[in-house]
Structures are given as C-alpha cells and as structure tokens.
Amino acid sequence: MPPTSHAEERSSIIGVGFLGAGPVTQAIHLPSLARLTDLFDVAHVMDVDGDVAAEVARRVDARHSTSLEELLADPRVDVVAICSPHKFHASQVIAACRAGKKAVLCEKPLAVSGEEATEIAAVSAETGVPIIVGAMHTFDPGWLAAERLMGSLPETAHTLRSSIVLPPNARFEDFATEVIARPSFPKPDFSDPAVVAATLEGGILGLAIHDLPLVRRFVPRFDDLEMLRAEVVEPFGYVFLLRTGGRTIELTAAMNATWKPEWTFEAIGPDSQLTVTFTPSYVQAGSAIAEFTASGATSVAGPFGHNGYEGEWRRIAGIVRGTDDAPDAATLIDDLRFALAIVDGARSRVLGVAA
C-alpha cells in the first residue's frame, strides 16, 4: 500500500466552526483541540462581537464572521460547536442539522424547554446528523471505567450525590488562556424569590447538568420527582435534595475563591459504593479517578491520559470517521428533560406555585 500523502492527511482533518467565541471556546475547546491537531482544524469562528471573533480566530488562523448563516455555509466546517448563550442553543442545533454538517457539539443545556427538546429530537431523526452534548464527564475515561466497575449498583443504589466546590470560573479560565471580553454579572438580590428561582435554574442548567447524566444512569425514570429542598448558597452555589425513582439525590455546589477545588460523584448502595473524583472544570489535564468498594475490597481506575473535554472531541472524531457510534438522541433528550424537571421542582419549591 502506498504511503499516505501530506495532502491526503490534511484532507482527512475535520474542520470545526464555533458559534460563540466566549470563555468556554477560548479556555476549554481551543486548548483541547490544540492537543488534537492530527484530527481537527479550527476553520471558522463566529461571534456577534466582531472584534472578539476576529481576535479568537487570529489565534488559531481561522476565518471569522458575525453571521450564523456564513459559518454554516462555509464548506470547510464539518462540525459545528455551539458555545453561545443557552437561549440560542436549540435554534442553532436545528440550523446546523439542516445545514447537513457531519456532527454538532452543543454545550449544555441542549435546550431550555421541553418543546425545544421535542423539536430537536424530530430534526435529528429527520436529518440523521449526530448531536453531542458537552457534558464532559460522560466522556471522561474515569467515568467510563466507573461504568465497567460498578456491576449491579445502578439497580441497588439508594443515594446519589454530586458535590462541587470550585473557585470562580475566571481563576481557571485565566490559567488556560488570556480571555477576551469576559462577561460580567451584577450581584443578585436574593431577597427576591424570583431572583432565587432564576439563580437556581442557572445552577442546574449551567453546573449541576454536568453530573445529571451520571445520576440518570441510576434513575432511568423520574416521573415521580419530589423536590424536598432548593436553596441558594452565596456568593454562588446551591443545595438541592430530591427523591425520584426510589432514590435520594443530593446536589450541592459552592463557588468561593478561598476553598480548595473538589468535584465528586457518589452512588451508595446497601453493600457497595462508587466514588468518582473529577478534575475541576476548565482544568486541561488528567482524567477522573473512580473507586468502587464492595465486599470490603476497593478497585481503583485512573487517572488516564486525557480528560472529558478531550474525550468528547475524540468521540466526535470517531463518529465523523465512522468508528464510533453517536450518542443515543433519546437519551440526550431524556437527560435534558430530567434537568428541566429539577428546574420546575426548584421553582415550585421557591415560589410556592407549580412551575
């Protein structure tokens, strides 16, 4: 067989277009892709702020624009990465699918309503374009090893716990890159129940949602969800306590500049326990470590050579090249519906009315 030419090697590189050039693109995805130049090339960067789009594109020698349509029409873009504000996700996922791209990576959440989720499911089925949601923990080799270790625990677990302690995102963003045009947010008025409800929704759809697909591994049905506690932790964080599917679920988070980062997921059964310790968000090295204890013996898996951010891009490359299966669209939609059910439960708890 003749050797592969340089031109053939370049033609197999997958072109990526970014919708949104904010901190997630700058500090998460571009550093990840910089380690995967044998698989990907950043072809196009779009942002409504033309100066930001131009500067981020300059860093990676890509084309830039302020137009969704221009990016989708770019023949060099094989995969669209959607890193825009939440409210635009559904419409942009649908547009990218209808544009016939090879895959779509959408940052979480995939949508912000059940109606949007239903429309995405229909368009995905119609077009056949695979959709990947950027819940990076589901692609972390430490979590994938945990799934192989835990045996019957998904059927026997009684308590599921996601515990997150992080400094503000800006600290890790600055470690990763020099962020351009970081958005600022006013201090919320937590004396207003509507503000509390909105803050809790942001915590669910922006932070807790990373681990909700892991929780769903143990809670395939959630039609009996009962929210027992929903509180804001200042300066930013949350405490949720809920029951569904016969399981107690604890979701806690605190972002405070003085505390040591820690991110763990636990599943506890009558005679076994799984603990997965993840690297903090925005950290670009090292996988999760999984520990599974049963019958007095503990098995440990990890750390592995890459984390979930890189894992999701490796999965995309496999999907585009036909060596990996795409995530099941129905599972992604149910993961989103689970998150939205928790949002509804929190709003009802805080506001005292049905969401």
Automatic annotation (TrEMBL):
The Gfo/Idh/MocA-like oxidoreductase N-terminal domain is annotated at 15-134
Give start-end ranges for the coiled-coil region(s).
Answer: none
What InterPro entries does this protein map onto? Gfo/Idh/MocA-like_OxRdtase_N, Gfo/Idh/MocA_Oxidoreductases, NAD(P)-bd_dom_sf
Reading the lineage from the top rank, the first entry is Bacteria
Q: What is this protein called?
A: Gfo/Idh/MocA family oxidoreductase
Lineage of source species: Bacteria, Bacillati, Actinomycetota, Actinomycetes, Micrococcales
